[in-house]
Amino acid sequence: MSERGNRGDRGGRGGRGDRGSRGRGDHGGRGGHSSTTEKKNILDLTKYMDKSITVKFNGGREVTGILKGHDQLMNLVLDDVKEITRDDEGNMSTRSLGLLVARGTLLVLISPEDGSEEIENPFVQADDDE
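The line above is the sequence of U6 snRNP-associated protein Lsm7; the predicted structure tokens follow.
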């Protein structure tokens, strides 16, 4: 009976085997955060600080403004913001909004204004008047 606490390999399930990492905290579990993996943002927006960018939202709205701040959730602070609207014929008009805080969950596209230009759609076929 003195061997009661020392289970060893005495039948049953064939020894302890690998029971995972329950309670030890070395592989996730409840042991806390691992210091070896650090999340990084996909975009490095620090290089666009105080520069003009275009932001498109998932509702179809589009704005341009100067990036003043951001956080890890991709929330943006833009200054001198102008909303760009297009009508059915494709005519573009703008209206001034001033300071804008854009929530990161609504963003679809972020692009810098310098180094970008709008081109014709190469996939639209020209209409022939025959």
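Note on the example: The mean pLDDT is 81. The radius of gyration is 28 Å.
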